[in-house]
Amino acid sequence: MKKTILFTFSIILFLSFQGKAQKLYTVDYESQADVKVFVVDYESQCDLKVYKVKYESQAKGNEGKWFFVDYESQADKTLFFVDYESQADLKIYFVDYESQAGWKNNAKKHLLF
Prior knowledge:
Layout: H1 2-16, E1 23-26, E2 35-39, E3 48-52, E4 65-68, E5 77-81, E6 90-94, E7 102-103
Parallel strand pairs: 1-4, 1-5, 2-5, 2-6, 3-4, 3-6
Antiparallel strand pairs: 3-7
């Protein structure tokens, strides 16, 4: 009985960490967004280094590997790109290589869970 409960708990815990938001959709209005994002000019200014992946299956985990979906209903989170850094919840920098992606400011990780 204990093994069954432990196994069930393990499965639930495992599945709860699989849905981390990395499938994203860009909305037209700030009020529609889960997260307001600003793209900085330099890596040293960012909270998150982002790599845009080619396939949805590559966008697992909250590691800065983003896949932009075509429809809002497919997204884990919606984004609005703001014009000014002061308006942003999250500052990002787009990197050229997948291995460069990742968080620089772990305090902001909760925004994409």
